[in-house]
Design brief:
The protein is of the alpha+beta class. About 40% of the residues lie in helices and about 15% in strands.
Length: about 140
Amino acid sequence: MYALGVSGISQLDAAYAQNTKDVARYIQHTSEGRLCIERGYALQPWQRVAREVIESLMCNYYVAWTDMAQRLNISAEEVKEALNYDVPALQQMADDGLITFERTHIALTEAGSPFVRNVAAALDKMMINNNNRFSKPV
């Protein structure tokens, strides 16, 4: 997915790239037919797997481990290893009625769908011991 505009973030197969936040510089570069990328981030293989799982969960409210493994051409265990696959935390979310959590899959419940970002963040290794939050509360 390619982002256009000032501060836009493009999602590439193995990286992210962010456009400059400087409007004048962005206009100048694009009018010259050049990209205006200010910074980028290359993903590790495990981060690419985690991104696929989280994207699937957030878009479909469901992730089947064997289906994801087949799609990524790795084992279901490798999929789980790329995540913060914390069984007690996932079971607590299931006990709270947010997800169904089985050996084969995770699915958001209707009651849990408003909390999809929380469930996804719980699976993200990058969020462990990280107090940064990237969306501002309404």
